[in-house]
Specification:
The structure holds two protein chains of two kinds.
Chain A (H helix, E strand, L loop, with lengths): L3 H9 L4 H22 L9 H15 L8 H22 L11 H10 L5 H16 L2 H12 L4 H8 L3 H23 L7
Helix pairs in contact in A: 1-2, 2-3, 3-4, 5-6, 6-9, 7-9, 8-9
Chain B lengths: L6 H20 L5 H21 L21
The chains are: A mainly alpha, B mainly alpha.
Chain lengths: 193, 73
């Protein structure tokens, strides 16, 4: 199967409807799960499919306008669309966008699905799950977006309507807290319970 | 993009990669029709616009333009 960005580049050069639909299937076969991950725990579970489909439609009708050539740029562009749709979702419900912490057992469910783990991987991931769940809600949101969802600083700044440098400093502060917390967790004399 | 200078940053990034990989496996695509419908509708709109555009007449080439005579003096 061709990689995502190759398919997207081919799509924008394609004019016929039959070819576009075929390429759309190939693109969204790969992209839909990634788009779903972008809104994971961002909207109520019962609304997730509706919001996801709104995002997919918005991506689909604008696919031929995406002019860049890298996978990272494409994912960044998709995240922008996803953010706007999530914003609309909250706006229509007059609620505030709030990240729901994910229970550790649910995170482990996905980690186990990802493939085999070495002993070191298991220790690292156990520690990562403990520190991300131990942080204050504010830190949780920043660390989740930056490290788990792989957003850029400026994407976080835009979503939170904050200055770029404030976002950088906040993430640095949260990482320092996480660093302090993880040292005893990773000590061989204090095995994880 | 990712700043993994700290050990905490490195393991959180690793967690992100693992979660994404597992999530993608557990949630395969099942709404391809939503994208197809949007693309079909967009295509229909584009065709409609093309049909309603007035046919444009290409400008005459220089070779076909007769030289105008200047006023008789």
């Amino acid at each position: 199967m061709a990689d995502l960005i190759t398919l997207v580049r081919t799509y924008r050069l394609t004019a016929g409807i039959a070819d576009r639909l075929r390429l759309s299937d190939e693109i969204f076969l790969q992209l839909e799960p990634l788009l779903r991950f972008m809104i994971y725990r961002k909207v109520l579970e019962q609304d997730e499919d509706d919001v996801l489909q709104e995002i997919m439609k918005a991506v689909a009708v604008s696919l031929d306008t995406f002019k860049k050539n890298s996978h990272d740029d494409f994912m960044r562009w998709c995240r922008g669309i996803a953010r706007h749709k999530v914003h609309d979702y909250y706006h229509s419900r007059k609620k505030t966008d709030r990240m729901e912490p994910v229970p550790p057992e649910e995170l482990w469910g996905y980690v186990d699905e990802s493939g085999s783990l070495s002993a070191q991987d298991k220790l690292d991931l156990e520690t990562a799950i403990k520190i991300i769940n131990a942080k204050k809600p504010r830190c949780y949101d920043f660390l989740w977006k930056y490290h788990i969802q792989a957003w850029d600083y400026d994407e976080i700044a835009e979503e939170k309507e904050m200055e770029y440098h404030t976002v950088v400093r906040t993430i640095e502060r949260c990482l320092k807290l996480a660093q302090k917390l993880m040292l005893p967790l990773m000590s061989p004399r204090k095995p994880l319970s | 993009m990712q700043d993994d200078n700290t050990e905490a940053g490195r393991i959180l990034h690793k967690l992100g990669d693992r979660l994404r990989a597992g999530f993608v496996k557990k949630h395969p695509a099942r709404h391809l029709d939503a994208a197809r419908t949007a693309i079909r509708e967009q295509y229909a709109r584009e065709q409609e616009i093309k049909r309603n555009q007035p046919a444009t007449v290409p400008p005459p080439s220089q070779a076909n333009v007769k030289k105008r005579k200047g006023p008789k003096l």
